[in-house]
Design brief:
Distance between the termini: 11 Å
Helix content: 25-40%
CATH architecture: Alpha-Beta Complex
Strand content: 25-35%
Shape: elongated
CATH class: Alpha Beta
Number of strands: 7
Order of helices and strands: EHEHEEHEEHEHH
Number of domains: 1
CATH topology: Maf protein
Largest sheet: 7 strands, mixed
């Protein structure tokens, strides 16, 4: 069995792993969430996921470290986490009435060897229009804080979503279907 370490501060990722019954040890990593090079949302999500996994791998002698990062993509540009609540309002105004993508990078790194496997998943989200009052009240609730795109589908932000096309857990922050395929492939190639 793979000894898994989660390099993340995200309570959502911890909860998804726990609900799936996947045992893991938590690693508290702090990485600068910037990427040099390709600004494409998919490339950003993959690079940051691997950056987090490698930072976690530096903290342990053995085991597989999981890193993950989620970005919201609208018209080819990446929306990360809002810098403040004003920025969250701007993001939500842009996303209101849109069809956008949520892209999550998932990276596994072997702490002992440095071997890595990094993939991404994409879910399309159809969001309804929102009034300025709805946006202001939602952001004031604090729910948009530290969330890619400024909303949380697993909390009350789902009321703004008309439908999704793809993985729900990807929108939450960790595509469990992809992770399970990656863990199976990792175990088979070990």
């Amino acid at each position: 069995m793979i000894r898994l370490h989660l390099a993340s501060r995200s309570p959502r990722r911890r909860q998804l792993l726990q609900e799936a019954g996947i045992p893991f040890q938590l690693l508290d990593v702090d990485v600068e969430e910037t990427v040099v090079g390709d600004p494409a949302p998919r490339a950003i999500a993959a690079a940051l996921a691997e950056k987090k996994a490698r930072a976690g791998a530096a903290l342990v002698a053995k085991g597989v470290v999981l890193g993950s990062d989620t970005v919201v993509a609208l018209d080819g540009r990446a929306l990360g986490k809002p810098a403040d609540r004003g920025h969250a309002c701007e993001m939500l105004r842009d996303l209101a009435g849109s069809i956008h993508s949520v892209i999550t990078g998932v990276s596994l790194v072997d702490a002992a060897t440095g071997r890595a496997l990094t993939e991404t998943d994409e879910t399309r989200v159809v969001m309804r229009g929102m009034t300025e009052a709805e946006i202001t009240a939602y952001v004031a609730s604090g729910e948009s804080d530290d969330k890619a795109g400024g909303y949380a589908i697993q909390e009350t932000g789902d009321r703004f979503v008309e439908r999704i096309e793809g993985s729900y857990t990807n929108v939450v922050g960790l595509p469990m279907e992809l992770l399970e395929r990656m863990l199976c492939a990792w175990g088979e190639s070990a």
